[in-house]
Design brief:
By secondary structure, the chain is an all-alpha fold. It has helices spanning 2-6, 15-33, 38-58, 63-72, 76-79, 86-90, 94-126, 142-157, 161-189, 191-199. It starts with a helix and ends in a 10-residue tail after the last helix.
Length: 209
Amino acid sequence: MSRFWEIFRIGYDNWWLVAIYIAVLAVFLFGILRPRTRKQWRSAGMAQAWVIALYAEMYGLPLTMYGVAAVTGQTEYATNHFRGHAWAFLFGWGDTGAIIIDVVGQTFIATGAIIALLGWRQIYRGKGELVQTGLYRHIRHPQYTGFFLFLVGSIINWPTLITLVMFPLLCWTYYRLARDEEADAMVAFGDEYRAYQQTSGMFLPRLSL
């Protein structure tokens, strides 16, 4: 039994845990983002690569923390797993700051997951019709909003060099994808979709003037 629970040990060099997180999030990402076209599959593949890069460093080999340790001269970044909440220690906020960073990051991640799941459920129940109720009353792409919140929460909680570099590229990729989907919706729903655009935001609720 002890060997079984070792799989879930929180720390570095735990590749079983890396594999579990990657597998679970692959199901979540591909289910929520619903890739169908070649472009959507490429975008989803990029999102999955981002996840792999994140968790491979979080529970596997902390290459970014090795770099931070070399630059700062503090070996704790490479040996103490808790130091992976690096923003708190880089800004001198200490353990308390790291706990706060962890809570804030996880809140963004959980909120993003909930929004994405609710958006997916509405689309599934819509059966190809234009959905304008619930979350879709306020934002046109809640699944992508949830995904963006997941990305932001992960970077707050556990920054790595690769995920920081990929973050703007990934956001731009899904922005362009959303634009393409809106062009398709315009063809499918015409004036109804144009009117819907005037009352809703793309990823955030439209502010009332």
